[in-house]
Amino acid sequence: MQNFIKINENDNxxxxxxxxxxxxxxxxxxxxxxKSVTALEEIPAGHKIALCDIPEGxxxxxxxxxxxxxKEPVKAGSWIHVHNLKTALxxxxxxxxxxxxxxxxxxxxxxxMGFERPDGKVGVRNEIWVIPTVGCVNNVAAAIAKQANAxxxxxxxxxxxxxxxxxxxxxxxxxxxxxxxxxxxINHPNAGGVLVLGLGCENSNIDVLRPYIGDYDENRVKxxxxxxxxxxxxxxxxxxxxxxxxxxxxxxxxxxxxxxxxGMKCGGSDGLSGITANPLVGRFSDLLISKGGTTILTxxxxxxxxxxxxxxxxxxxxxxxxTVDLINDFKNYFKSHNQTIYENPSPGNKKGGxxxxxxxxxxxxxxxxxxxVKGVLQxxxxxxxxxxxLLSAPGNDLVAAxxxxxxxxxxxLFTTGxxxxxxxxxxxxxxxTNSRLAAKKxxxxxxxxxxxxxxxxxxxxxxxxxxxxxQVASGKKxxxxxxxxxxxxxxxxxxxx
Length: 497
Prior knowledge:
Largest sheet: 7 strands, parallel
Number of helices: 13
Number of domains: 3
Radius of gyration: 24 Å
Shape: globular
Number of strands: 23
Strand order of the largest sheet: 19-20-18-17-21-22-23
Helix content: 25-40%
Strand content: 15-25%
């Protein structure tokens, strides 16, 4: 196994796969010539080594793109990181549509064992969800779910409560976002039955929420207003017994992978994220799309610096303009709060070897694969077009993953170089970027992409990941599900009363 990797032939840096001691020499092709580069200092694993002299203000190239400019002259063999590299990004930019040719492949369909719903949707779980309309009844919802699991039978897998702190004392877009996300989850096909639990006096009470939910199956969705009940927990348990009886009538049957929707997210990235796990997920996305399936990419602030790659893969000029708005709306959101647009990456990212937002974004967008962008979704909007979709949501792990679930994702693929135990309302599969993390946190990690920095093969690992996703869609639990973790978070932007 080699100790470094040069990702693109035009790069002037390489990434250390293992710590390179001071004085170690690497042999690499630079500008068409093979040369030896000696490390002038220790290069931590996941971090960058300069392959040639770069003048002050010179461009540092990784993934074939600029990831920033040097703050000072850098000699070949030097460690390149935040101490001598800065972002080259500006604020709002002008974009032009320069579409690239993308070959749309079709591959043979496969099936998973899913739950066909009467409304034509498909679920990969058959759970009962308790969804509070307001944070005031969170503890009641949790108590109901805890007691109701004693009644689970047949194909019903679990009763789960999704507490959140919102639904009241919100204004403008915040209240609207809460209503949309709650309605999206109520309508999500992974839930065979739903109890909507209200307090009664909240802004987003059940009567207000009903129009957002739209038409629904009265056997599947039930409502309870706690202020109107003498014993809200007792009444809720009786309702859930009925929901379990209804949902237990569903059984897994073969379903085409073309109906599978998978969200894609990364968090706690390191220097290997854009080399192993993220491009692996991108290849998975291409494979699922080739079978007629759908993927959703989000965390818009982590597209900054790599957004033109996505813009030029838009299937139409209309989608290009929607993507421009997606990017600029988020930049304006930062500016409206007097925040620096490029205040990224995080301390954990930097420790793992990511130096600038361009560095992070170019790694992040690897998850999109090479497919055309077929849809652009606003926060709280559900997916309608098969293929690759872009979703407006922030980079925060819980908020973004919840947004993916609300948009219709059956499963979320979450790549990580640092590790995290969290989950979202749908199965949240953790994919490690390095083998050390996979070995240390086997109770968190579901799939190890770190082998791709060793002797792993992308086509083989792509098929393994695809097969694993099909198993999860067919009922195999991921680590966070085994641990009983189910989280949700709603995007808050404005004033709380």
